[in-house]
Write a structure and sequence with these properties.
Layout lengths: L8 H11 L3 H16 L5 H20 L1
């Protein structure tokens, strides 16, 4: 693929790396998606509650 575009492998990989999102950018897109789809944007407190819910349920299941 790199040769077909007249690039070295290093240049091709560098271009690919530039096109990838950083973890912060991926997180921002993940937060924006529900708002775009439903108009719902949780507050930071709601986000924290939602993030802790799986841990709470796992702890509850482990206690049984």
């Amino acid at each position: 693929m790199a040769a077909a575009e007249g690039l070295s492998l290093r240049a091709s990989l560098a271009r690919l790396a530039e096109s990838l999102l950083t973890p912060a950018e991926r997180a921002e897109q993940a937060r924006a998606a529900p708002k775009a789809w439903t108009g719902y944007a949780p507050s930071p407190a709601e986000e924290q509650d939602l993030d802790s819910e799986p841990d709470r349920r796992l702890a509850q299941a482990a206690a049984r």
